[in-house]
């Protein structure tokens, strides 16, 4: 069975995991979404994904779940020229929420048009399955990216950027999902009949 992992964004990481082979055989790449606005970037991503699905022929797809709401404001104290001040940030912000949902919408539409079964997987879920832990107190985005790349290196999976590494983790985690196990059992039943 072939699992495709997707980390949708304007630089969408993808992976192809043949579950009958060693994890080191997982392939990965990136689809770049170019355009003047979110809609055209989503359309470009959809076009590129059509080509990828035709070439790689997945039996199942796992997609990282998009950001569902505005991240909470983060407050931190910083020292500047000997004075302590409070700095606020809004996390990923509205643009990240919009872009994330546009890209996942495009991906879901293409996968649905091909009739390929798929799931969305929350980052904490796929990280726990791939890394062995889904949360780590004090970790920032860069810490997660570093850990995922290190895990890919330890499994001898060739990735050249963070988007590809995340897509590998997503596909790897999908193998343990109830949805994939059900589809795998159905395929085995058809082969036995």
Give an overview in words.
This protein has 193 residues and is an alpha/beta fold. It contains six helices and seven strands. Helix 3 (123-131) crosses helix 5 (162-174). The longest helix is centred in the middle third of the chain and has 22 residues, at 93-114. The model has no long low-confidence stretch (mean pLDDT 90).
Task: Give keywords.
single chain; 193 residues; alpha/beta; two-stranded antiparallel sheet; 7 strands; 22% strand; globular
> What is the straight-line distance between the termini?
18 Å
Going across the major beta sheet, what is the strand order? 3-2-1-4-7
The stretches of 5 or more residues where confidence is low (pLDDT under 50) are none
Largest sheet geometry: 5 strands, mixed
The total beta strand count reads: 7
- Binned, the helix content reads 40-55%
SSE-based structural type = alpha/beta
Q: Whole-number radius of gyration?
A: 18 Å
Written as H for each helix and E for each strand, in order along the chain, the element string is EEEHEEEHEHHHH
Q: Averaging pLDDT over every residue, what do you get?
A: 90
Give me the number of helical elements.
6
What would you call the shape? Answer: globular
Strand content: 15-25%
């Amino acid at each position: 069975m072939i699992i495709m992992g997707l980390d949708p964004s304007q630089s969408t990481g993808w992976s192809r995991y043949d579950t009958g082979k060693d994890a080191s055989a997982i392939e990965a790449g990136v689809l770049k979404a170019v355009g003047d606005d979110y809609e055209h970037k989503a359309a470009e991503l959809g076009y590129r994904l059509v080509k990828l699905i035709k070439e790689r022929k997945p039996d199942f797809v796992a997609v990282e779940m998009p950001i569902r709401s505005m991240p909470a404001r983060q407050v931190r104290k910083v020292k500047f020229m000997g004075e302590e001040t409070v700095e606020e940030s809004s996390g990923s912000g509205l643009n990240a929420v919009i872009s994330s949902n546009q890209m996942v919408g495009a991906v879901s539409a293409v996968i649905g048009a091909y009739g390929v079964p798929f799931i969305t997987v929350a980052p904490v879920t796929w990280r726990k399955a791939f890394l062995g832990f889904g949360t780590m107190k004090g970790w920032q985005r860069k810490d997660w990216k570093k850990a995922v790349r290190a895990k890919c290196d330890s499994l001898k999976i060739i990735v050249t950027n963070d988007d590809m590494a995340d897509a590998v983790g997503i596909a790897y985690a999908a193998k343990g999902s109830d949805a994939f196990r059900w589809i795998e059992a159905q395929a085995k039943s058809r082969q036995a009949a």
